[in-house]
Amino acid sequence: MAINLTKGGIIITTTLLILVSIPYVLPGYYTQLSITILTYIGLVTAWNIISGYAGYLFLGATAFYGGGGYLAALIFWVLPYHVGVLVSGLVCGAIALVIGLPLLKIRGPYFAIASFVLSEILRNLIYYLEHIFAGTVGRNLPTQDILTVYYMVIVMALASVLTAYVIKKTRMGLALLSLRDDEDAAQACGVNTLLYKLFAFFITAFFMGSLGATTVARYGYIDAEGAFNPMTSLTTAVMGLIGGRGSFEGPLIGAFVISLLYELFFTAGNPYLFGMILAILLAVVIMFAPSGLQGLIQRLAKKI
Amino acid sequence: MLPSSFFTIFAQLLISAFVLGMLYAWLASGLTLMYGSSRVVNFAHGDITMLGAYLTYWLFTLYNVSPLISFLLEALLFGGVAILVFIAITRPLRKRSRTGDEFEMATIIATFAMSMWCMNFAGLLWTATPRGFRYLPQVLSFSGINLEMNRLLILILSSVSFILLYAFLSKTRIGKGIIYTIQNSDAAQLVGVDVEKVALLSHIIGFVTAATAGACHSLFWTISPTIDMFYCLIAWTVIIIGGVGSLRGCLVAGLIIGILETFAVYLLSPALRITINYGALLTILYFKPRGLFRR
What we know:
By secondary structure, chain A is mainly α. Chain A is built from 14 helices and two strands. Chain A has helices at 5-25, 28-53, 61-75, 81-103, 109-134, 146-169, 171-181, 183-188, 193-216, 224-227, 230-243, 249-266, 271-288, 292-303, and strands at 138-140, 221-223. In chain A, helix 3 (61-75) packs antiparallel against helix 4 (81-103), helix 3 (61-75) packs parallel to helix 5 (109-134) and helix 3 (61-75) packs across helix 9. By secondary structure, chain B is mainly alpha-helical. The N and C termini of chain B lie far apart (47 Å). The chains are: A mainly alpha, B mainly alpha.
């Protein structure tokens, strides 16, 4: 498959150089901004592997993102930060393999419902269990300084984007695409759909979990209500859908544009207003441009 | 005062379960018809319920309008909204989609956007603070079993509406058309059912049941912008248990969930209400990925 290594190397090196230099060149605010944007880029790209490539509309990003953060609150006391992040991600991936077996048998609307329900159960159950057995609401964890978190976010987000690119360009992407379009036909043609689905789900969960663990070190505190906030799931899905589900560039564009807009104009303002605008944007996209911003840009480029 | 003997507690819980179950059955009846006959996967069902509840609250507290009148008023209002949604969203999406699955996925995303808009709109207007009002709070006592007047009203409203809907479907010509379309859309079209009209009607029924269930909700419980998710998922649980497009299944499933929720909450903890309901949903999907009764 056509992966241009020289061109790719140049793009990655330039991106890395720009990202790494941000804390030294720009004021501190921009580092925080970059952490938020990179987190969403990583999340939405990971979401796109199961929801875009494989076609399973996943509305439970917060189950892994929050789950990774919650695991990290336990792991960071024992393991160093960087190792802890990877371990959290791997545990989330392992959980995804176990629950994916029954979950990925569900198709269509019921999968979207089941995935959303999963994160809501986690939120409710963990809150309850902590209250009963630990007698607390949340947990403290060792904090990291912002630069450490920032570099880890760069690594995880970039790894997520690279993985998504490699999957798209190899046999794996083709297999996922075939099972998205017609799972029974793909199965009949000899594609081991279950294996590919599970692997895609593992990758999604790994990156969501490790990103959750990475960012939680900024706050030093986590509780079930905050960790498993359903808004994370919804925002991730909306960014992916507006950007263009299924393409490689779509989620990048969606996550970048929307999280930048949010950070620049709405952090001080009313979050409800932003939610309404986002909803209208999503409705416009699904009614008039189903392939999202990515499709629009492609069409514009062709005209020019 | 807590009832003392085992049987009084049991009867008390059963009454509560019955009220809840009938509300759930009425809530989901429109959604199951809508999905069954037009394949529109409505993720905004719970949001219509939430808006209906807030509207009842507003009309009652601001203008002292009886919730019974709001119940009827909302049926008209949201019936109109359903027509708009049908024209603006369902029809263009159906024209564009090549396959049924593609259409379903498109409606999921469109109604998901609708849901998000409604939730944030409610947050903007009424904030996240739970709202509520007191209407007919007198308690009726019958040999140690208590029932508030407003909960009795919920039971009456949802039962009567459900029976009327059932009669409408089984007795009228267009109602039978809905049932035929649910059973086999192509065959229904062949024998002369206007499938387009049926789809529009199922949208109206879906929105009216959701909104009026919201009016019922507001009689007894408090309202916040996040009840939409709960009601949306409860309605889908009822469908997954009762089967798509079946009113009888809807009634049975609604009552089952009502009983399960009431008794499990009593035995375990009210804090686990979400885990109990959603856990039931996941358990069923775990064993039957296409719902208890496949289409």
